[in-house]
């Protein structure tokens, strides 16, 4: 009889341990999942932010080049008009 009681207590202890492990996993899995998602989304946001900064700088550079070309074009037009009148 004592072997049977030991077996039952060992079995019930294992059931309690596995139940507690399942409850702990059930509680912490959503937290781990959300942390992973937040990490990857923030990584994407940082990548897009750096691309945005880079594109803004490129836009400034291209705007300056465009203004320079417009200025050169105005000068060339005025020179051409001046020589064509003479």
Summarize the structure.
The protein has one helix and no strands. With 86 residues, it is mostly helical. Helix content is 98%, strand content 0%.
Describe the structure in your own words:
- By secondary structure, this protein is mainly alpha-helical.
- The protein is built from one helix and no strands.
- It has one helix at 2-85.
- The longest helix has 84 residues, at 2-85.
Question: How is the secondary structure organized here?
Answer:
Elements: H1 2-85
Q: Secondary-structure element order, as H and E? A: H
Portion in strands: under 5%
The secondary structure category is mainly alpha
Could you tell me how far the N terminus lies from the C terminus, measured between alpha carbons in angstroms? Answer: 126 Å
Q: Summarize model confidence as the mean pLDDT.
A: 88
Task: Characterize the main sheet.
Answer: none
Total number of β-strand segments?
Answer: 0
Number of helices: 1
Report the C-alpha radius of gyration, rounded: 37 Å
Helix content: over 70%
Dominant shape = rod-shaped
Low-pLDDT ranges: none
């Amino acid at each position: 009889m004592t072997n049977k009681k030991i077996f039952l207590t060992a079995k019930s202890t294992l059931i309690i341990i596995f139940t507690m492990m399942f409850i702990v996993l059930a509680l912490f899995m959503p937290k781990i999942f959300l942390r992973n998602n937040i990490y990857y989304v923030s990584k994407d946001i940082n990548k897009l932010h750096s691309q945005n900064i880079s594109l803004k700088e490129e836009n400034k550079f291209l705007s300056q080049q465009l203004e320079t070309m417009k200025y050169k074009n105005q000068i060339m037009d005025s020179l051409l008009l001046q020589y064509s009148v003479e």
